[in-house]
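Record passed on here:
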Amino acid sequence: MRTIDIHTHVLTEETMGLLQKESSKIAPKLTPIDADFAVLDVAGVPYRPFPRGGFDIERRFADMAAAEVEVQVLSATPQTYFYDQDPSLAVACAALQNDQIAKLTKAHPERFLGIATLPMQAPQRAADELTRAVRTLGLRGAMIGSNVQGRNLDDPALEPLWTEAAALGAFMIVHPMNVAGADRMRSYYLNNLIGNPLDTTIAAACLVFGGVLERHPNLKVLLVHGGGFVPYQAGRWVHGWQVRGEPKVNVKQSPQPWIDRFYYDTILHARPQLEFLVSSVGPARVLLGSDYPYDMGTGECVRQVKALSIGAADKAKVLCDNAVALLGA
């Protein structure tokens, strides 16, 4: 059994150099803080601290060994989604990053799998890039933001992407960004502590109540960070559909079957919450995740799963088997 971490991010210095050639205005820049951390500046917006493992593959391998992770699924950093840029530039940057992720998976096939980033502000071109990433590059799906510059994931313009993702059998991971209510979460790091799981929850609700999951029964969607607030509030969604007319606009039957389609990663940071997730949605719908290399992730993900009060077969599903089934790993 291999341990497969499906939620990690990478932005190598080679990729940064190629993005610099594409557009010096938005290209990522690293400013070292010390031997372990740097400031990552993207389009003039600094992120700190950016751990060395985000851009240094040898450090990544050392951290994987310490975390007992044997395989990582690589994805782009949220800082380089570029949804706010001109579509042509976003298309070029997405393709460049996807080529680089594919290069890493080919160089280290026993350690890495990859998923794509997409130019979501140009839905047809995003669908085309997903096709190229899966069929030509051998990537297994894509990680996309929870909204596209404020447009929710049930926006009709995104239908070409969902159609293509379902046809390809692509594994789609929803990652929070540009979170709602940020003006009220400026203190205490609430934009991440609350904002990130909140925006994942909004994205999931729109996929359910917008009818996206109903229209595309083959669509495979994973919600990061334990699904935000979805597992805890799913009963409220079903009750609301039963007693109110507004949730029935696009969904003419109980939303429970569509809620039951979501997959989740393990990033909840505490045993009681992770055990609740596994018991409420079932071990077949939970996959190992770390959010490597960010400080809101965890290097304890494997050990956290091994410590759960569930059977060995269920632990194997979370640590490995579910990823193998969903990604063809």
User: Anything to note?
Assistant: The first strand starts at residue 4 and ends at 9. The chain has one domain: 4-12+55-327.
